[in-house]
Write a structure and sequence with these properties.
Structural class: mainly beta
Radius of gyration: 27 Å
Shape: elongated
Number of strands: 35
Helix content: 10-25%
Length: about 575
């Protein structure tokens, strides 16, 4: 099998779609063919490629096809670690190459040929011609093995010409004898050829079946029909005013107070930053964070899109509330940090103050799809990272300071960004700290096949775009001896297509949900409960279904959980009392 360059994406994203895709900011970004490209013709290599990228496939059926006369894969390849055939042994091919490269290796065997397995062509002085894989060279002879397993020995003294051929000994058109479903099964088999410990980690962390609770959790709106929100993205309880909640709207760039009174619900404007934020279908206000000392300094922070001077960015802005804390003072924002964005997608949006008083900011890879610029593995950019900054201090040229204990604060390379706390994250849209353990739980939105839930620690590399979930995604930016932190859990496409990170429940110690991380999926609206031990998945259950698309979770001061319903503009409370997590 050949090592291949990652295929460039021919797909583009559209917001608020209804079919499988990748997600950002509570929108599902559906893979669609570009307007300039016609649909794949049935039976074409592209049709097979698209099917194999969209479906899981059955490895057991694929194994039978590997040994089938229609493919003859077994004729050139072993899978037992003993490379005695012309082609490379495939015992751990799933560890070495992502699915997209395995697909291309079968469809286009000559695209990139693995070193040592190229075809050698020899012409002797007598006019005979031989070709095959050069298996052995001595001082006196060359030994070639061709695709038919025929061995040819050629004396060096007889060689008139010798050259390498750009054509693989693996024949073109292997897929033509298979249906798209069978081709996908074959790829699925190649993908599971891994070192045993790697395969076990994938199976343990990416369950094929997620059990449902016998009694799901109860989900109810917290306000009456007279109150609705326009594309809400964030929710939380006001830090100083009891029984009042804060709701941020994405496109309107407004922040509202939701009051709960016996006489009815009220919705009053808290802040309006339309003059400062760029808004659109997938742009606007993404998150709010209140300063831990809000009661005394009245500071709060918003993260929003900005197109300025033709350049796209995400901005964290500091604002000050009026003395009673119930409305914005009207003073201009103080721009804390401006983070460049390559495109309008995957630009993050999560932002929370940690238990250490530092501000943690989630930035996605900022696109294009599949991170072709390698932002995830590049410490010179703030994209595809969790950042950690100190908003209580400033440094020369900055409206913030870098904490001295950040993992890269004293890095010897001046180009490395000292604000980075962790990296290798594709789209950390929502994340939160466990109030008891202080673990940072992150919901990281996937690309093609898997959604991730991770516990992220200082200095860790979470693998994007080398890994997606537990699976290899690309070799483009893979480095020798690099350590990649795996997720706690990953979800297959049949379970969800856009993970929304939530919270570890700690409101009631006696609850069976105490210590359970609760998250969901924007598009499928499924809710999950997860427990872990030493960073590895222990239990996962489907605990219920949201009435609306889950763009965010929130909590009140007691730690009770709420869901932000993006499409319906409704805030819901999650009642765990009637359910049992087991």
């Amino acid at each position: 099998m050949k090592r291949l360059r990652m295929v460039g994406s021919i797909l583009k994203a559209t917001p608020i779609a209804l079919t499988t895709g990748v997600a950002l900011l509570g929108f599902v970004l559906t893979f669609k063919l570009s307007a300039a490209e016609s649909p794949a013709a049935p039976g074409s290599p592209r049709a097979y490629r698209e099917h194999a990228m969209a479906q899981e496939g059955n490895p057991e059926r694929g194994k039978k096809l590997f040994n089938d006369a229609r493919t003859l894969c077994f004729q050139c390849h072993t899978v037992d670690g003993k490379p005695v055939k012309p082609g490379p042994d495939l015992l751990t091919v799933g560890d070495k190459y992502p699915r997209v490269e395995l697909i291309r290796a079968v469809l286009e065997p000559s695209a990139t040929i693995m070193p040592g397995y190229g075809r050698t062509e020899i012409e002797t002085k007598s006019g005979e011609k031989f070709d095959g894989i050069l298996k052995s060279v001595s001082q006196t002879e060359l030994i070639l093995v061709n695709a038919s397993l025929m061995t040819n020995r050629v004396q060096k003294s007889d060689v008139k010409a010798q050259q390498s051929s750009p054509v693989s000994i693996m024949p073109e058109g292997v897929h033509a004898g298979l249906s798209p479903e069978e081709f996908t099964d074959l790829i699925a088999y190649l993908e599971v050829l891994k070192q045993p410990e790697m395969q076990m980690a994938n199976e343990a962390g990416t369950p094929s079946v997620i059990r449902r609770l016998a009694q799901p959790v109860t989900i109810s709106p917290i306000h009456d029909d007279s109150v609705r929100f326009d594309k809400p993205t964030w929710f939380g309880e006001h830090p100083t005013v009891p029984n009042v909640f804060v709701v941020a709207e994405q496109i309107t760039a407004r922040v509202w107070l939701l009051g709960k009174k016996n006489g009815g619900d009220t919705k009053t404007l808290f802040a309006d930053i339309r003059p400062e934020a760029t808004t659109g279908e997938i742009e606007g206000v993404m998150s709010v964070a209140f300063h831990p000392q809000f009661a005394s300094n009245r500071k709060f922070y918003l993260i929003h899109d900005l197109v300025e001077g033709g350049e796209r960015a995400m901005v964290v802005a500091e604002r000050i509330a009026a003395p009673d804390g119930t409305i914005d003072s009207g003073m201009p924002s103080r721009r804390i940090i401006r983070i460049a964005a390559t495109t309008e997608v995957h630009h993050g949006g999560g932002m929370v103050f940690g238990p250490d008083g530092m501000l943690y900011i989630g930035m996605g890879d900022t696109g294009p799809q599949e991170d072709p610029l390698g932002h995830g593995q590049d410490l010179r950019t703030l994209s595809a990272k969790i950042l950690r900054i100190d908003v209580n201090r400033t440094e020369t040229g900055r409206n913030y300071a870098v904490p001295i204990d950040n993992p890269f604060a004293t890095h010897r390379d001046p180009a490395v960004r000292r604000e980075i706390w962790a990296y290798g994250l594709r789209q950390p849209w929502r994340f939160s700290f466990d109030p008891m353990t202080k673990d940072l739980w992150v919901g990281d939105v996937g690309q093609n096949r898997f959604e991730e839930v991770s516990i992220v620690r200082a200095g860790e590399n979470h693998g994007w775009n080398v890994y997606e979930g537990f699976e290899l995604f690309s070799n483009a930016f893979r480095k020798e001896n690099a350590a990649y932190a795996p997720p706690v859990a990953s979800f297959r496409r049949k379970h969800g297509v856009s993970v929304t990170g939530g919270f570890v429940y700690r409101a009631r110690r006696e609850s069976s949900f105490n210590g359970v991380y609760i998250c969901g999926d924007y598009e499928s609206r499924r809710l999950w409960g997860i427990t872990q031990r030493l960073g590895k998945l222990q239990t996962i259950r489907e605990i219920g279904t949201s009435p609306a698309k889950v763009v965010s979770f929130g909590t009140d001061r007691k730690g009770e959980l709420y869901i932000v319903g993006y499409d319906l503009g409704v805030i819901y409370k999650v009642d765990l009392s009637a359910a049992k997590f087991e």
